[in-house]
Amino acid sequence: MQKIKIFDTTLRDGEQSAGVNLNLSEKLEIARQLERLNVDIIEAGFPAASKGDFSSVQKIAQMVKNCSVTGLARSVTSDIDAAWEALKDGAEPRLHTFLATSPIHRQYKLKMSKEEVIETAVQSVKYAAKKFPIIQWSAEDASRTELPFLAEIVEKVIQAGAQVINLPDTVGYGTPEEYGMIFKYLREHVPSIDKVSLSTHCHDDLGMAIANSLAAVENGATQVEGAINGIGERAGNAALEEIAVALHIRKDFYQASTRLNLQEISRTSSLVSKLTGMVVPANKAVVGKNAFAHESGIHQDGVLKEKTTYEIISPELVGVQSNSLVLGKHSGRHAFKNRLNELGLNVPEEEINKLFVSFKELADRKKEMTDYDLVALVLDKKLSEEVSFYELNQIQVQYGTNQIPTATVTLTGINQETIQEAGTGAGSIEALYNTLEKCVEGSINLLDYRIQSVGAGRDALAEVYVKMKYMDVETSGRGLAQDVLEASGKAYLNAVNRVIYMKNMGRELSLTQ
Ligand SMILES: CC(=O)SCCNC(=O)CCNC(=O)[C@H](O)C(C)(C)COP(=O)(O)OP(=O)(O)OC[C@H]1O[C@@H](n2cnc3c(N)ncnc32)[C@H](O)[C@@H]1OP(=O)(O)O
Ligand SMILES: CC(C)C(=O)C(=O)O
Ligand SMILES: [Mg+2]
């Protein structure tokens, strides 16, 4: 197995994401987590960029013990000096210096000839070698550089003292085949290439950062650079978690491994997301909210029978507790039944089919069915089919500004009689509840009333939770409906019915709230 070093640049290139600005304590927090993740190298910043960057690189270098810390510097002595001052107290001071090599950058940005670029790179590496035990040199925009020139400059910086050669696809222009070929070419055309390790640093402008990084590994790169969650300049860097997991899952193919503590991936991803404010898309590989969620019936059935039918990465591998079978309109009976069992809802086999029909009807109107929806479905069924005491038939509530809210309610009572009452209250709900209290036998003391929407958007259902004391029993009830008043009425009667059921049957319903 080839050992691949993981070079994390979340705090340098990652922080170059537009809109991201981490303060010192946030950077220290991320660095600590990167150490737990066990990356090999942390690029903590660009010390010459600002006082803030200098001091965070310095503090991280002093704090981190289990991995090497590096900082970026241009081919300028003052940048290298700043990097040394920031890094010298670290466990393994390492410089990352770079110079662009492509014709576009030479001509328009650096305004240097090929010879000047070679001279500048060589002088800066020689200068750095007097201070740093380890120097990484990067040929910025390597993937758009003439290969013979790239081979020439790489040979010269190796001779000047560089131990790691990084070949960035700075603007995410390369294709996997092309980019892999650059590594192959240099291995064949640079005489001193065996003295150094080769590193890959890819950007995702064309969505090929991961494929390009892996192509580099296939062609001899032994260090992979990237950022957590793929953050970074423009479309971002290669997502380190994706590379590490790809190498792990496909070790049969890549014959390579990293020392990463993969179980820390999920935690690292959410920390970086929270502190940078860069939200992780739900469908993002490895760390997205949906990465281990199965929504459709056929997939859910497969996963329930054997996870590996649709799951190539086990969630536990990356520190996610478990997969999830999201119930929605695409789900089937297997997943539905499985979730009911997990919730401890004992529904007889013959009931499942009936319940499943109601589930599908509701699921058609909602984006996602929550556990509460399922509990409400089952409870509603139990109460309405097995134990029908008070049943709500009709509610009418009149409300207007400067008017007394009035409710009229029609119920079917315990003995199948029709009960009709009217009442008022300070608000619509109070009017409804005062009226319902007139309908049922015995007094009721409402202790708590809570309402929330289940789901988001206009199709959300109202879910009402009530707690009350009825017949000396403290009980609770839930009501689910598209209308707030109907849900409130249902919750109220649900609680009342539970008490009657308990009193009658001498046992509580198996569901507790
Ligand atoms: C591909 C990458 O991600 S590279 C890293 C990018 N990261 C950053 O730029 C973040 C930190 N940068 C900064 O804070 C600032 O750009 C500084 C402090 C480094 C420089 O600031 P300034 O002196 O104001 O220069 P400015 O940023 O406007 O321009 C960059 C200069 O560096 C030169 N330069 C660019 N790369 C290099 C290099 N590797 N070696 C030497 N000079 C370089 C440019 O040609 C330009 O020179 P010029 O002023 O002679 O035209
Ligand atoms: C500084 C270098 C390594 C870089 O970030 C790039 O070329 O993308
Ligand atoms: Mg970069």
UniProtKB/TrEMBL annotation:
<dbReference type="GO" id="GO:0003985">
    <property type="term" value="F:acetyl-CoA C-acetyltransferase activity"/>
</dbReference>
<keyword id="KW-0464">Manganese</keyword>
<protein>
    <recommendedName>
        <fullName>2-isopropylmalate synthase</fullName>
        <ecNumber>2.3.3.13</ecNumber>
    </recommendedName>
</protein>
<dbReference type="GO" id="GO:0005737">
    <property type="term" value="C:cytoplasm"/>
</dbReference>
<dbReference type="InterPro" id="IPR005671">
    <property type="entry name" value="LeuA_bact_synth"/>
</dbReference>
<dbReference type="GO" id="GO:0030145">
    <property type="term" value="F:manganese ion binding"/>
</dbReference>
<dbReference type="InterPro" id="IPR002034">
    <property type="entry name" value="AIPM/Hcit_synth_CS"/>
</dbReference>
<keyword id="KW-0432">Leucine biosynthesis</keyword>
<feature type="region of interest" description="Regulatory domain">
    <location>
        <begin position="391"/>
        <end position="513"/>
    </location>
</feature>
<dbReference type="InterPro" id="IPR000891">
    <property type="entry name" value="PYR_CT"/>
</dbReference>
<dbReference type="GO" id="GO:0003852">
    <property type="term" value="F:2-isopropylmalate synthase activity"/>
</dbReference>
<feature type="binding site">
    <location>
        <position position="237"/>
    </location>
    <ligand>
        <name>Mn(2+)</name>
    </ligand>
</feature>
<dbReference type="InterPro" id="IPR013709">
    <property type="entry name" value="2-isopropylmalate_synth_dimer"/>
</dbReference>
<dbReference type="InterPro" id="IPR013785">
    <property type="entry name" value="Aldolase_TIM"/>
</dbReference>
<dbReference type="InterPro" id="IPR050073">
    <property type="entry name" value="2-IPM_HCS-like"/>
</dbReference>
<comment type="function">
    <text>Catalyzes the condensation of the acetyl group of acetyl-CoA with 3-methyl-2-oxobutanoate (2-ketoisovalerate) to form 3-carboxy-3-hydroxy-4-methylpentanoate (2-isopropylmalate).</text>
</comment>
<keyword id="KW-0028">Amino-acid biosynthesis</keyword>
<feature type="domain" description="Pyruvate carboxyltransferase">
    <location>
        <begin position="4"/>
        <end position="266"/>
    </location>
</feature>
<dbReference type="GO" id="GO:0009098">
    <property type="term" value="P:L-leucine biosynthetic process"/>
</dbReference>
<dbReference type="Pfam" id="PF08502">
    <property type="entry name" value="LeuA_dimer"/>
</dbReference>
<feature type="binding site">
    <location>
        <position position="201"/>
    </location>
    <ligand>
        <name>Mn(2+)</name>
    </ligand>
</feature>
<comment type="pathway">
    <text>Amino-acid biosynthesis; L-leucine biosynthesis; L-leucine from 3-methyl-2-oxobutanoate: step 1/4.</text>
</comment>
<feature type="binding site">
    <location>
        <position position="13"/>
    </location>
    <ligand>
        <name>Mn(2+)</name>
    </ligand>
</feature>
<dbReference type="InterPro" id="IPR054691">
    <property type="entry name" value="LeuA/HCS_post-cat"/>
</dbReference>
<comment type="similarity">
    <text>Belongs to the alpha-IPM synthase/homocitrate synthase family. LeuA type 1 subfamily.</text>
</comment>
<dbReference type="InterPro" id="IPR036230">
    <property type="entry name" value="LeuA_allosteric_dom_sf"/>
</dbReference>
<feature type="binding site">
    <location>
        <position position="203"/>
    </location>
    <ligand>
        <name>Mn(2+)</name>
    </ligand>
</feature>
<keyword id="KW-0012">Acyltransferase</keyword>
<dbReference type="Pfam" id="PF22617">
    <property type="entry name" value="HCS_D2"/>
</dbReference>
<keyword id="KW-0963">Cytoplasm</keyword>
<dbReference type="Pfam" id="PF00682">
    <property type="entry name" value="HMGL-like"/>
</dbReference>
<comment type="subunit">
    <text>Homodimer.</text>
</comment>
<keyword id="KW-0808">Transferase</keyword>
<keyword id="KW-0479">Metal-binding</keyword>
<keyword id="KW-0100">Branched-chain amino acid biosynthesis</keyword>
